[in-house]
Design brief:
The chain is an alpha+beta fold. It folds into two domains: about 35 residues; about 110 residues, Immunoglobulin-like. The protein is built from one helix and ten strands, in the order αββββββββββ. The longest helix is centred in the N-terminal third of the chain and has 32 residues.
Length: about 150
């Protein structure tokens, strides 16, 4: 035998690399599996030139409640989860830190209710435009959502 210590080192290196790769695959699978309980449908926006909004439906097929707790986009300076509420003399909007998506239920973000607010648009949103927003869920993490701009 020329160098048994060198062979052991190579064998241990291969073993450690294999274990490390296995751990990465398991973590990626666990991360992907968590997001499969959340599905997002019918995401759209309307034409806008300074501030816009995204409306959509979020479905939670999981056994536990989920929290929508953040949003991002490249089309606006700020992207936030908002709600519309009634005040004397009309409606107003405000940022909310999170929105519960109950287990086994859907929540629809729609005009006059919950929505994703696009503040300080980088460019006008025109009918037929497409862009992507990211929604952050407490357990599922970030999910990218394609959005289409539709007419009223």
């Amino acid at each position: 035998m020329k160098n048994p210590t060198g062979l052991r080192r190579v064998a241990l290196g291969v073993l450690y690399a294999t274990i490390g790769a296995g751990i990465i695959v398991l973590l990626a699978a666990a991360s992907f599996g968590a997001s499969t309980n959340i599905s997002i449908h019918d995401a759209y926006s309307r034409p806008a030139n300074d501030m816009g909004a995204v409306f959509l439906t979020i479905e939670n097929s999981g056994a536990g409640d989920e929290q929508l707790d953040g949003a991002r986009s490249t089309v606006a300076g700020a992207t936030e989860v908002h709600e519309t509420y009634t005040v004397a003399g009309g409606d107003a909007m405000r940022h909310i830190p999170s929105l519960t998506i109950p287990a086994g239920k859907s929540v629809t973000l729609k005009p006059g209710g919950y929505h994703i607010m696009l503040i300080g648009l980088n460019h006008d949103l025109r009918v037929g435009d497409h862009f992507t927003i990211g929604l952050h869920f407490h357990d599922a993490g970030w999910i990218d959502v394609p959005v289409v701009v539709r007419s009223f």
